[in-house]
Design goal:
The protein is of the alpha/beta class and about 575 residues long. About 65% of the residues lie in helices and about 10% in strands. It has 22 helices and 10 strands. It has helices spanning about 15-20, 20-55, 60-105, 110-115, 115-130, 135-155, 160-205, 210-215, 215-225, 230-270, 275-290, 290-315, 370-380, 400-410, 425, 435-445, 450-455, 470-485, 500-510, 525-530, 550, 555-565, and strands at about 335-345, 345-355, 360-365, 385-390, 395, 410-415, 490, 520, 535-540, 540-545. The chain has a 6-stranded mixed beta sheet with strand order 6-7-8-3-9-10, sandwiched between helices. A 4-stranded antiparallel beta sheet has the order 2-1-4-5, with helices on one face. A hairpin with a 2-residue loop joins strand 4 and strand 5. Helix 3 runs antiparallel to helix 6 and helix 10 (about 230-270) packs antiparallel against helix 11 (about 275-290). The chain starts with 13 loop residues before the first helix and ends in a 5-residue tail after the last helix.
Length: about 575
């Protein structure tokens, strides 16, 4: 499994994101610095032009130079905007691809840890905010070059001008430091509350039928929006921090500018400066005290940093690491050796041992919470155990390549997600080269062919335009599993929404399939367990018994598992 960063913190996603657009970031930095350089040259050129005009000397060349600098600055500003937008878009897309791939690789643990709504908020909003970090960093150099260049220019005009500015520089530095620290904290709080609202909204949307049936729409709306006061507080704190920084900048920066202009005026009276140099000094004082630009840059970086940290929390979740081995020829023998697995901090399976001979059908039964679905997930490595090993034909699942594992193991679920543009695509999902004949054969085995043909465009009907019941959705999920035709087929309560007649037909087709593969069924009906070759009875985190259903049925406690209807 992958691990967190060595120092225990979430990984920094902005560095690889910057490398992804390194060339454009370098170009943006060069363009920004060039624009800053042009901005630093313009006051000197204007001052020299003014001196020549006051002296009635030829100044055409300097006027043209000033006009050229203005045009150059406009062109560089346009290039800067285009490059910044491009870098932001590329970085955001890269972050979303990486985050999506990681969430899918981690699997259900990601949604359990953060909630589906919060994950969507991070993927959409936080990725866009974090995507601005490389461009903001590239532009920060130019933002810093302006004040530093302005201060250096003041020193070149006259050292006393630089001395006056440096007297107030520590106050500006402290202002920016405090602003950056407070902004980062406020933004992190704001984004965290946003995630909580998104998570609650996703839960409400998923359960909209239950909410409507219970008539609790107003109550649920209040629950979703309950964190709004916290969001408002965090937002107001951000505005107060930014407003306080702006007010302090307004108080400090003009005093420094006034001090520089006053000293320049004294030097003018003493004939140490010309009128043009006083003009240039006043402009350089504005550049040197450009706190507003820096406040904006640091605020942007603070938002990007907080968003990147939220992405890093997701990327820090360990994802499965696959091996390099392939399966030998075999019938699909499944074996669990001392498997211990937890869910939500609770030990669900504790040292479970189980052997499923190749080519046989095993039904897994047990009360609610016994660990049936977790065992099914472990059997095909949708989850990994905390201890123990799961083997397929003698090879630990951890050591198989990703492609070999997914090719060997097929799944069907109680509530299948039908992914793909059309119904045919949904059934053929995961197949390297799905053929229409194979798709239709699988649909017939799953008793889905009849209702699919009645759809507006048959198998070519878009999934979104294919109205279906829960049982019909399950049949399409079963058809997808049958089309997969691996050596191990796992049905995790995939027959629960079917009527008894359809279930019997599908179970018969499942047992009669000639592939010789192994089948593991999570069963909640006695009739389903009776059709399997053997039954594994889970109880209190362990495999209590394995044997034919008829023999286990003699035990009152085994019969009680089906009698109380709690095996789902």
């Amino acid at each position: 499994m992958t691990t967190r960063a060595e120092d225990g913190r979430a990984p920094d996603v902005t560095r690889p994101a910057t490398r992804h657009s390194a060339a454009r970031c370098v170009a943006l930095c060069l363009v920004s610095v060039a624009a800053t350089g042009g901005g630093l040259l313009l006051p000197a050129a204007l001052g020299r032009t003014l001196d020549l005009l006051l002296a009635h000397a030829p100044a055409t060349g300097w006027v043209l130079a000033c006009a050229g600098l203005v045009l150059l600055l406009a062109l560089l500003d346009a290039c800067q905007s285009v490059l910044a937008g491009t870098v932001d878009a590329r970085t955001t897309a890269w972050l979303r691809r990486r985050l999506t791939g990681h969430v899918l690789a981690v699997g259900p643990r990601a949604a359990d840890r953060f909630g589906s709504g919060d994950l969507v908020a991070r993927l959409v909003g936080n990725a866009a905010q974090a995507g601005t970090a490389p461009a903001a960093r590239a532009a920060l150099l130019a933002a810093l070059a302006g004040p530093l260049g302005g201060m250096a220019a003041l020193g070149l005009i006259d050292p006393w001008l630089a001395v006056v500015f440096l007297a107030g520089a520590p106050a500006l530095t402290l202002l920016l430091r405090v602003f950056t620290r407070d902004t980062t904290r406020c933004v992190a709080d704001y984004q965290r509350v946003q995630g909580r609202i998104a998570s609650a909204l996703a839960e409400a949307v998923a359960g909209h039928r239950t909410i409507r049936a219970a008539g609790t729409e107003d109550r649920e709306a209040a629950r979703v929006l309950r964190p709004l006061p916290e969001l408002s507080d965090a937002g107001h704190r951000m505005w107060r921090v930014q407003g306080r920084a702006a007010a302090q900048a307004v108080a400090v920066a003009p005093l420094l500018q006034l001090g520089v202009v006053a000293v320049a005026g004294v030097l003018l009276v003493r004939h140490r400066l010309s009128v043009g140099e006083v003009l240039a000094a006043s402009r350089y004082a504005v550049l040197a005290t450009g706190v507003g630009v820096l406040v904006g840059q640091f605020a942007s970086l603070a938002r990007a940093r907080a968003a990147a940290d939220r992405l890093g929390e997701v990327l820090a979740q360990p994802a499965p690491v696959h091996g390099s081995r392939r399966l030998p020829d075999g019938p699909g023998r499944l074996e669990l050796r001392g498997v211990t697995a937890r869910r939500g901090g609770r030990t669900v399976l504790d040292g479970a041992d189980l052997v499923v001979p190749g080519g046989t059908t095993l039904a897994v039964v047990g009360r609610s919470g016994a660990g049936k679905s977790l065992l099914a997930a472990l059997a095909g490595r949708l989850a990994d155990p905390e201890a123990g090993e799961v083997l397929l034909d003698g090879v630990p699942l951890r050591e198989l390549t990703h492609e070999e594992l997914r090719r060997a193991v097929g799944y069907a679920f109680a509530r299948p997600a039908l992914l793909g543009a059309t119904v045919e695509d949904a059934i053929g999902l995961g197949l390297a080269a799905p053929s229409p004949a194979r798709i239709r054969e699988a649909a017939r085995a799953a008793c889905a062919d009849d209702f699919v043909r009645r759809l507006p465009n048959g198998y070519a009907t878009a999934c979104a335009d294919a109205p279906r019941s829960g049982g019909e959705s399950q049949r399409l999920g079963l058809a997808r599993a049958f089309a997969h035709d691996g050596r191990l087929l796992i049905l995790d309560d995939a027959l629960s929404s079917l009527d008894t007649v359809t279930e019997a037909r599908i179970t018969r087709a499942l047992l009669d399939r000639g592939s010789g593969g192994t089948r593991l069924l999570v069963a909640h009906r006695a009739a389903t367990a009776a059709r399997a070759d053997t039954v594994a009875w889970l109880d209190a985190g362990r495999v209590r018994a394995v044997g034919p259903h008829a023999r286990l049925w003699l035990l009152p406690e085994y019969r009680a598992v089906f009698a109380d209807g709690t095996t789902e």
